[in-house]
Each structure stands twice: as structure tokens, then as C-alpha cells.
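Subgroup meeting minutes
Present: P.N., E.W., G.H.
Scribe: E.W.

1. P.N. recapped why we're keeping a running log of single-chain structure predictions: easier to compare across weeks, and new members can see raw inputs and outputs side by side.
2. G.H. added today's entry (884 aa).
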Amino acid sequence: MSIKVCNLKCEYKKNPIGIDTKNPRFFWQIESDKLNCLQTAYHIIVSRDMNFNDIVWDSSKVYSDESIHVEYKGKELQPRTRYYYKVKVWDNNQNQSEWSNISFFETGLLDNSAWIAEWITVDESHINVESCPYFRKEFKTSKKVRNARVYITSCGLYELYLNGKRCGDYYFTPGWTSYKKRVQYQTYDVTELINEENAIGVILGPGWYKGNIGFGGQRNFYGDRLALLFQMHIEYQDGTEDIITSDNTWKYSFGPILLSEIYHGERYDANLELIGWDKVHYNDSTWECAKLYNYPKNHIIAHEGAFVRKIEEIKPVEFIITPKGERVIDFGQNMVGWVRFKATGNKGDKVIIKHAEVLDKEGNFYTTNLRSAKQTIEYILKGEDYEVFEPHFTFQGFRYILLEEYPGEINLENFTGIVLHSDMEETGYFECSNDYINKLQHNIKWGQKGNFLDVPTDCPQRDERLGWAGDCQVFINTACFNMNTASFFTKWLHDLKADQLANGGIPYVIPNVLEERAHSSAAWGDAATICPWTIYLYYGDKRLLEEQYESMKAWVEYIRNQGDNEYLWNTGFHYGDWLGLDAKEGSYIGATPKDYIATAFYAYSTKIVRDAALILGKVNEVREYNKLLNNIVNEFNKEFVTPNGRLAAPTQTAHVLALMFDLVDDKIKPRIAKTLNDMIVENDYHLTTGFVGTPYICHVLSEYGYHETAVKLLLQESYPSWLYPITKGATTIWEHWDGIKPDGSFWSADMNSFNHYAYGSIGDWMYKVLAGINYDDIKPAFKHIKINPKNSFKYFSYIKSSYKSLYGIVKVNWEVLDHSIKFFIEIPANTSAEVFLPLAKIDTLYNEEKILLKDFFGSEIFQENNGVRFNIGSGKYYFEYTID
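Output recorded in log:
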């Protein structure tokens, strides 16, 4: 092999169906056994048939190094059509690849005018019934089927069945969006399930749409009734078509799901099961006719995000009898999903399971931190042999389950934890010689798994589980390293734009289910700028940046219009440095002045808008926002910096933000950095930062010459620190540094989540600074990679790290030997990298063949004060150098 095209994707997905993008984008990767491989040209062919006889786009040979976000430029795509595509490329060594394997994408309805189905619902008298309605419809086919697709959505959640089989492996569909403005539909390929006689079955549940959501027992936020929209297109071999749609010929009834609520769990009576309800010839004579529902179709969109799926299974590790005599099962991992269990007993016996994250200091089951969320599963047995159950429209956050009722002997083999979350490819790997840091990385990833269930939630267990914008922007860098979040955040950011206020304000939570005045805190609203910009940096997604640009700009203009000084933000409510440890007694808000934080983020968002305008070619707006940024920075310095260069706010967070957001003159940065360092050292290497300062504190220390302090902060094991929760048995990231205190008592009862990803934001510093994997702002998506690990050799004997970029895998491993350092670096084809090796000297720096790098690279290698810098192309490299 000299060069090969592989890993083809369309709109970030492998062989997607049901996309409504009229100009979809293609992605591919290149494999080569040669160093320095760069694509010089590509050729894409798209056809309606696998033999490529019905070509809709032939790009011909395009001289370009683009291999991601290559936009379709062929004939207008038709709805409900499968298109096949293949790619070949040329490289800088005059190699030409073979054609890639054939991939495909399939369009959805493309236009809401294609919906001929009717919304259907239950009778008015059943609107407030807690039981979940079952809908069904029978139909026949008389010809040989070529293909069949279902397009479906709902008000509430749905499960789709055809001829007794559940369709697809998606859960919590159609997903949580700003339902009054955007409702997703999903597409299912049901060709193999179609028979001559057929029965469709759909179960609806309240979900986020109609069930409890937000605070104070709020229900029916988006609407007071469940509804279904269903459209099946059956294409026959002879070219004819049948369309089966939801209408008032469908029937509905209620069955065994007596209650299914996201916060509260599910109650299921197996004696009420409707045996065969989703199969033909079922007697539905007692069922009622569905009612037509006058609900709009003009806000329906194709599925955008990552589908929620069952990702893995966890077996219990221990059965416990608590001091109170409770029967508790420990799964060993704080997880999100549900428990699949087996039980046997008499008709009417019950299984009642409660869920919790922790045990209290006496070892008893603890649920007070769940607040009003019941997290309870109740199953009533029908009295057959083993009965197996898992719930439908609810999920729990838990490590422990309490068997309040369970017939017969308890066997751990009868219980399995089912982990559900949005199905995003894991892209980041980090391992080092310190076991606690490895556990921290484990906890960060599990925090992301638990809270990335269709939306980025703050917590997955209590009566909240909301898409807090502040938490999201705090964590997004780490999230993008750990997993491919491009589709996930595309969907969420579109909802942010949809829920943005007319004046540009941003709600605290997205989708917004809070009261009208709950919007526009600094650092929370700044998710409108920080998140799309971050997605651009990691994935090069210029289209999303363009889609969000007006929203980004509107947020900055909202700030600009507050108060009587357009260059300071000193009005309104702000969460400040939320949960900062320097807060006054009884307050959740840290000591850093809120107007300081607000103005700092105002400057940062303005900078992002300026930079986005530059990328998008908006020359006049680049000038406008550059001028605004300069004015904000000048006003910030007048207000918060003394003439001698001291910050008016003597807090860690204040010093972090001034440096991270480049708000002060270069000549006083060393003083501010030293003051920050002194604060930490004098506090025995402990931080006092909250949500606002924590993500950046180690970055700032490492950047301004205090990397050793940053490492000591990371390695700190006593409270407050990243490792303290691990000493207390944490398997996810906590909301509070001391969620469990040293004596085993709890921080609080009302706000104490043990699965809260915000402080996991340290993860991107571990990748970027300890391992040294970073992007280049000028060539995003790791097209040009910066390998620049800081000298941490005194504290770690090895680090192994990798990141699966859109171009391929980036890998940096380093190991400390007796008197030398060994590096292994892998750079994917069609990219380049700048490498800096700390403490290296040109005269002792060798490659794998023991050739001095200065002889290998010639004049392209540079000795600097604290290391060696050089550029490399794609390939695998081994370096070794001696150290004193």
C-alpha cells in the first residue's frame, strides 16, 4: 500500500439515512506507508446506484488538500433517495489511490410539505391519564417490496414496533429540542420487517415534553397531550408505492406502563400486558379510535444529534445488607441508564427498586440529594417463570440500587446495569504513571457519558437534569477531546439559537424550561460564542460557525446594550464564580466581583465574534468587533487594574481570567501570574476557584512559567482538589469539591450531585499540556498539530495519549528512562505538526535509527532555551534524547 482512502463519512456519520441537508459534506481519511503524505487532489463520484451508472455528481479531479467538510455540488438531491459515493485521492509523492470502498447516504423528506400524515392523539378524556398509550394499525402489501422507510416523530417520546419487533436501537426519540420551534423526526429502514400482512405499534411516553421537567413539579411545559406523526413509504419492485400514514383509522389503548417519568421512574403491571398488540390479527375491538390533532408540521426537522443508544452493560460487584437492614446492590460505577432484572414469583408480587449514587457515612442507602426525584422502578409480576424487565421512558443516575421489594432469593446474576448515552465515538485516550490521575480521567469520561444523554445536562439523577449553558461551555474542550461531539453540539447549539431571546439574551438552560427572567448570566450566556467556536477549532466546522454567527453576534450586542457604559457589564444577575470556595458563608457565588467576571467574558465573547467574522470573510465586522474589543479591554483596565498593575480583585479566579482572556498589558502579566502562583503556594497548593476559574487555572499557570505549580495542583489529594473525591471512592466527577467531607458527612442535601462534569474541565489541560496534543487556531481540526508537552518528567514516568481527529489518529507517548526521554509521535496523513521536545538538546536528539535529528532535518531544527523545535509531516516517529 502506498496510499488508501478509508473511513468515509457524510455529515460526520457513517452511511446515514434520513438526512435533510441539501448539500451534505463528505469526510475521509488517508492511510499511507510513506512519511509526509499530503493529499494534493481528490475525485468524488456520487450516484443513485451502486454501479455508478446514474451519476448525480462527478467532481472530476479537484486540486485541493481538503478531506473534511467537502461539500456536495451536484444535481439537486431528491427526497427519500439513497446515494452512493466513492473517493480517490492523489498525494504529494505522485501516488494515486484506488477508489475507496463504496459508502452511501440517504435523504429524508427534505421538505415539510412532504408530510401527508396527520398528527393523532388520544381522546380529550384521556389527556391526563398517567398510563402510556399504545397505538396500532394493520395494513397489507400485495407485491414484492424493494424498500420501506418509516418517518416518525411525536409530542413526547415514542417506541416503534413492526410485526412484533422493536424498530431501531435508538432511545428517548425524538429527542429533547425546543419543541415549539424544532421537533426532530427519525428515519427507519424497515424493509426486512415487511410481510404481506403487517401491524404497526407505537408506544408514547411523556418524556421532557409533557412530564415533570424543571423545578417545582412543573408539567406540560411544551404541551398537555401526547401525539404521534407517522409516515411509511413502501416502494415495490415494480416501481409503485404505498404510503401508510397516521390518521383516525388508527386505534389506541392503555397497557402495562402505568407511569413512566424521567425523574420518577416507571411503574409497570405485567398483568396488563397487551399480548400481540403489535402483531396482525390482534383483537383490538375494545380499543378506541385515535383522534386527529391540529398541531403544526412546519417546525419538524430531520434528526441532527447523536442517537441515544445502549452503549454497554455493567454487572454488580457486591450485595450489601446495610446497617438499617436494607438490601442494596453495588454496581461499582456511578452510571446512567437503568437496570435490567429477572424475577420469579407469584402473580401480583412486586419488584420495587430505588436508585442512589452513594451510601451515607454509616453505609446506608442515601437519596436525599435526589430532592423530589423518586428514581423508582415498580414491576408487578404476572406469575410466570422468569420475568425479565427494563423500563421505557425513564433513566436513572445511580451506582447503588435498593431492593425495597423483590420476591425470592437475590442473585446478582439477575441484575445488569444498562448504560445509555448519546452514541459518540470515543476519540481521546490518556494514561499515565499515576493511578489516581488515571482514575480521574476515568471519572471525567464517565461524567460525560452520564450527562451527554441527548443534551449536555448538569446532572443525571435529581429533579433537574437540565442543559445548563455555563456547565456546557466550561466542559466543551474536554468533551471534544474525549468524544466526537460535533453532531451532538450541532443539535444543542441550534436549540440555543432557537431559544435565544429577541434582544439577544441567552437562557440559563437549553432547551429552556425555566421562567421568563432566567437568562443572560455571564459565562452562562457566553456558551453562545464559546461553544460554536470550540467546535470550529476541533472539527473545522465553518458551516456551524456560519449558522450560529448571528446568534453569537446578538449575544455580544445584548451585553453591549446593558447599563450605561457599553464597554463594561455591571448590571443584571450573574452566577459569578459559581461554587467558588472563596464565597461568603451561606453563598454559592465566589468572591470574584460579578462585574469583573461579566466584563471579562464580554471581552472574550467579543474576541470570538471578531475571529469568527474573520473566518467567515465579514471584513467590516472584523473591524467593528476589534474596535469594540479594544474599548472593552481599556475600560476593564481602568475599572479593575491599578496603575501599578495590581488587580482590584484579589482572587485566584480574577487573576486566571485576566491572563487567560488576554485582558492586561504584557508588561504586567508576569506580576499577575506571580501573584496567582503565590496565592496557590501560600494555600498549600489548593485552589479556591469555582466554575469560572477552574477550567483555565492550570492552563494559565503552565503558560506563564508556573507549570510545576499546575502539576502540584493536579496531584493534590487533600480537599479541595481533583483527586480528593477519588480518595473518597468517586467514580465520576462531583458537583462540589467536598460532596463527601473527610468525616463522611455530606456537603449539603439540596444541591450535591455526584455526577456533574464541570470540574472535569481539567481534562483538556491534561491532553494539551501534559501529553502535548493541541490544534492550531489557524489550521483547525488538527490539520496542523502542535505537539508541545510541558516538562512534567519529574512527576510522571510515562504518559500515553492519543486523539482521533477527523484526519486520523494523533498519538503522543513519552517515557522517562534513567538518563533519557523517549517519545513516540504519530501524525495522520494529510496533516503536519510542529513538535517541541522539552529539555532536548540538538546534539543528543536521535531518531529510531540512532541518527542525530540535526543530520536528519538539517536546517529545519531549532535549539531553544528549554528544548528543541522542528516540523514533521505525517507518519510514526521515535525520538530519544539524554537529560541531565
